[in-house]
Design a protein that fits this description.
Elements lengths: L6 E3 L6 E3 L16 H5 L4 H17 L4 E2 L4 H4 L4 H13 L3 E4 L16 E4 L3
Helix pairs in contact: 2-4
């Protein structure tokens, strides 16, 4: 995946964001898409959720799992965190993401729900 020089991936929400005029002199230093992401960047506990999610998928669903079935893993209040973790694991090439027809898609560009599977499958 090749990014345009004017696009980056936010280190908090793992979404694409584009160059803005206010970042003209500091674009190379910009890591977050917004003040909210900068303030609420992922914590160590959130990274632990990523590890737990990988282990859960490996143990419970060795083929593919529908993301709507993960609500029991995260709880409904953490749905945004779950989507962020899916994007992070996708960027790290840990998981593959498929639409409902089985076609590979990018969670950075497409909206869910998805099927996810560990990339080693």
């Amino acid at each position: 995946m090749i990014l345009d020089k004017t696009e980056k991936i936010c280190l908090s929400c793992y979404r694409y964001f584009s160059y803005r005029k206010k970042w003209a002199g500091v674009w190379s230093d910009v890591k977050y898409c917004s003040e909210k992401c900068k303030k609420y960047k992922l914590k160590y506990k959130d990274h632990e959720y990523c590890v737990q999610l990988k282990l859960y998928i490996r143990a419970e669903h060795p083929k593919k799992i529908f993301t709507n079935h993960l609500s029991g893993f995260m709880g409904e209040r953490n749905k945004n965190l779950l989507n962020t973790m899916i994007r992070k694991l996708y960027i790290d090439n840990t998981i593959s993401v498929f639409d409902q027809k089985g076609k590979k898609v990018s969670p950075l560009l497409e909206k869910g729900p998805y099927y996810i599977a560990l990339s080693s499958i």
